[in-house]
Structures are given as structure tokens and as C-alpha cells.
Queue: 2 jobs
Job 1
Amino acid sequence: MNETVRRVGIVGIGNVGKAAASAIVHNNIADELYISDIDSERAKGEAWDFADSIELTSSRTRVSEVPLEGLAACDIILVAVTERSEIPSSSRLELLKGTAAITYDIVPKLRKVGFKGKYVIATNPCDIITYLFYRLSGLPKNHVIGTGTALDSMRLRRQLSNVIGGVDPRSINAFMVGEHGDSQIAAWSQVTVGGQPLDQFEEDNFDEFGPIDRDQVEDAARHFGWEIHKRKGNTQFGIGNELAFFAKSILNDARTVTAASVIQNGEYGQHDLAIGVPTIIGRNGVEKIIRFRLNEKEQEGFNASAELIKSYIKQTLEEHEESAAK
Ligand SMILES: NC(=O)c1ccc[n+]([C@@H]2O[C@H](COP(=O)([O-])OP(=O)(O)OC[C@H]3O[C@@H](n4cnc5c(N)ncnc54)[C@H](O)[C@@H]3O)[C@@H](O)[C@H]2O)c1
């Protein structure tokens, strides 16, 4: 039998890493799950705790703790590292200094041991960290994927569902695009409900639902993460499942459409950054970027978001290139 072993790694086994590990193990997404953290003893404890849960699931995933270099043979590495002292802040961009330093530490090490698989990155600020992974890893563009606005897009679908009579969010096609942060925007011109453009759906059902307050729905989607963060100090289950979903889409070559932060080739008029856009995810990582024809207002919002990401990328590269040159 030609056995194909599905190997997934997780670097950073805090709140998000643990939720991702749980989703991977309990949904039988990998045959082998490798966990790595700078705190190797805690990571070992987590791995052993997961191993204890396997017999009660339909999965046979073997879970083990490894040093960073032990992730080299993985098909996919899920990235959920951050400084443990991460303090609640009003912007994900404030986390950049700490997470950029970790990125500059771990990516060259994984490159050196020959990691050739796919990275899926949750670490914030997600778009900038995704770009740094691309730049430092030497991997092709399609191998480096940030979760970007994937979770925000699910929130958008749910918020919209709430104001149109509870239509199953899975029957709604709606995406947040741009930065995984305050500057993201809803691509309203592209939204469909059961394939029907939202404007038509709204017109046909006006007597029942009245006008849709798009600004309110969009704002609620944009800020939902903070509403969770304010109450429990982190978010983990949505993003943990999101990471596992990306892993499954790659391993199963599912060619699922999702928002993701991916390196741009001019599809939206932007180059040399990672930013959230609808993508098709399959065996090769990013199979395709779907190019929405945004309206003028949306394109302006998207461009502003892209400029913000680019300014932070520039600043980070300057800081690190300068200190490397000294
Ligand atoms: N993209 C999203 O939608 C989304 C949602 C939620 C959280 N996040 C982000 O996910 C990241 C993780 O959040 P969390 O709540 O799990 O944090 P956490 O503090 O609970 O866990 C972070 C882990 O990273 C480990 N770590 C730190 N430096 C390391 C290194 N050099 N090598 C290996 N491991 C290292 C820490 O020991 C810790 O276990 C954060 O950047 C957070 O902002 C993203």
C-alpha cells in the first residue's frame, strides 16, 4: 500500500495553537501532529494531554512535542506564536514589534532545515507577518497563507444572516477584504444570497426585512473580535477551527473558496504585500485568487488598507535590515 502520511505542525501552543490542535485531532485532519513552542515543557504537557483524548475520538492522530527544527518534514505548519506577555491592545498593529522579532528568529531556522511545505499564519498583525514569512522562507507565493479576513468574513455572513431572517450563513457569499484589522472593508457589491445579488434580494424582501443597514453589519463584523477580546482576553475557537479548516482544504485538495491573506500579483492593482482577498485553497496552497470587480468606493477602501499594510512592512524591513547591517 502506498501510504500517504498527513503531517501537520503547530508552532506556538497557546490559546490559538491549542484550539487548532483540538480541531485537527478531533476532526481527524492529520495522521501526525507535531507541536512546538519556545516553552518546550509546556508543549510536551499539551501533547501528552491531547494524546490522552485520542481513544475517545474517531481519530488516530499521533501527537508529539518537537523542537522547532522537528517541524521540517510537515506538509503544513500552522503559526500561532506571539510574545506571551501580549497585552490587550486597541490595534493588532501594536503587536508587530514582538511578533516580527519572533518571525525573524524562527523562519530562517525552518528554512535552514529545508521546510518546503505550506505555512498558514494566524499570528498578528496577520498580513504583515504573512508577508515576512513569504520574504524570509524562500517559498513560492502560493505556499504562504495568512488567515487574514477569513474569520471576519464568517462574522460578516453571520451578521448579515441576523438581519435577513436567519438565512444560513453558508448560503451567503460575502467577504471582508483588506487588512485583518480596522481598515478592512466589506465587498458589498459582490454579495449574493443563494446566488441572488444582495440588492435584488433586499428589493424582493423589503416588506419583510426593511432596508439592510450595511454600515452597521459591516462594523459589527469588523469589530466582533474585539468584543470577544474585551470579555475573555483572547479569541481562540473561531481562529483555531479556521487554521484546521485551511489545513484540511490543503490536505484534501478541497479547492475551497475562502478569504485569506495572500501575496498579490496585481489582481487588485496591488503588488508585493499580503492582504485579505477571496482565494481558492487546495493542494498547492493558494490555487487562485478570485478577482472581484470592486466598485469605486470599495477599491478606494481596499487601496487605503493596502497602503497601511505596506507602510508597516516597509518600516519593519527597514528596522530589521538596518540592525542586520550593523
Ligand atoms: N488571525 C486571527 O484571526 C487571530 C485570532 C486570534 C488570535 N490571533 C493571533 O494568534 C497569535 C497567538 O495568540 P494566542 O492567544 O494563542 O497567544 P498565547 O500567548 O496564548 O500563545 C502564544 C504562544 O507562542 C509561544 N511562543 C512565543 N515565542 C515563540 C517562539 N520564538 N517559538 C515558539 N513559540 C513561541 C508562546 O510560548 C505561547 O505558547 C497572536 O498573534 C494573536 O494575535 C490571530
Job 2
Amino acid sequence: MTAQNPDAEALRRLLSGRATCRAYQPRQVPEDVIRSIVDVARGTASWCNTQPWGLTITSGESTEKFRTALMEQVRQHPGLESDFPFPDEYKGVYLDRRRKAGFQLYEVLGIARGDKERREAQSFENFRLFGAPHVAIVTVPQELGTYGAVDAGGFVCSFLLSAQAHGVATTPQAALAMQSRFIRRYFGMLEDRRVICGISFGYADTAHPVNGYRTERAGVDDILKLV
Ligand SMILES: Cc1cc2nc3c(=O)[nH]c(=O)nc-3n(C[C@H](O)[C@H](O)[C@H](O)COP(=O)(O)O)c2cc1C
């Protein structure tokens, strides 16, 4: 399918050029670039234009301190403490897609299916922020409920694409929402803020094999019903 105009092509290029980054260079993203990423992403639509998303972004020493504290927290309290319920179960096509993406990840890292130790170590990388020099914590106020979370999801997508357009790689991470209470306390956030996810970001380590695979998407006819 060929789009007929340059804007659609540019958007397609950004969407298909983006991939979740799981290894970073230590190099910091300049503050003016971070501000520009957010400036573009703030154009996201929201119900009643409430713009309920809040962003806390770390850099330099504040990332290092948070990374250390988060890893320690997870070692001590590895359980799930998310503000939004995690999926009960993956079934059918959702389970298939989840498995496929997981197998691709382990394959590229040379982790055997039965190697629980290395799988767990790779999963723990989430809390090391995959070595990223920055993390953005995305929150919404509790009282806006599910649609507040929907609005924030739109903002997350805009942030990923805006970062991509600025040459900055990203990792959306629900894993960080597993530690919502800790994150609220750590950053001194108001009690009514609900953690949607984290987005680690920075410049991709393109030589690392983990950044060398791409996930697939269902075709238009698999998701669209024209009636
Ligand atoms: C809301 C959200 C939460 C995610 N949480 C995690 C996570 O905790 N850890 C992780 O490694 N990837 C996470 N991902 C990345 C997905 O696994 C990834 O987007 C998906 O497999 C498609 O691959 P792609 O981003 O490379 O296109 C998350 C993505 C989204 C949108």
C-alpha cells in the first residue's frame, strides 16, 4: 500500500523506523533536544483537552541515583505494585504475538528457552533502564480514570515518535509501573498521581545485538473491518 503524500510517508517512516531500544550509549541527550521532544509530543489530543499527562525526566546524576535505588528496591521487593492492573492472561493470537516477540529477543541474545537465569537477568535489565542515560516517568491523576490513561497512552506514542524524529531511541516500560508506589515516593509525587509507565531514552548502542531485531505487525485486513 503506497501513501500518496509526503506527510503520510514521513509518518510511516517514523513509525516503521522506531523500535524498542534495549542497549544505550552513555552519552546524554542535550536539554534543548529533550525539551524539543516534549514540545512536539505535547500536541497530543486528549478527552476534553484535559492533557492529563505529567512527565518527570531524569538526566546525568539523577538517572544514576534513580537506577541504583530502583534496582535495590526490586531486589528487596520484587513483587507487583502497579496502579493499573496488569493483564490477567494472554490467550490466542495475543499469546502467540507475545511469545514470538519474546523468542526473537532471546534468540538474538543467544538465550536458550530453558535458561531461566539468563532470562531473569535480561528481564532485570528493565530496572537498570537498559543503561539509558535518561528516563521519563509518565503519570496521570487518579480521578480521570481509564480515559486519563488512554490520553496518556496517546502521549506516550507521540513521545516515542517525537524522540525518533530527533534521532533519540526509546524504551517504553510497563515494568517500571510495577514499582508505582516506590516511584511516587522516590520523586515526591502527589499521592493522586498514577504511574502509567516509564520511557528510558538516549542514543542507541547500534552495535549491540539486542537492537538488531524487528517485531512484526498484523496486516490491515487482520485489524480492520470496513462495513
Ligand atoms: C505501554 C508499553 C509498555 C512496554 N513495556 C515494556 C517493558 O516493560 N519492557 C520491555 O522490554 N519492553 C516493553 N515494551 C516494548 C514492547 O515489548 C514493544 O513495543 C513491542 O514488542 C513491539 O516492538 P517494537 O517496539 O520494537 O516495535 C512496552 C511497550 C509499550 C507500548
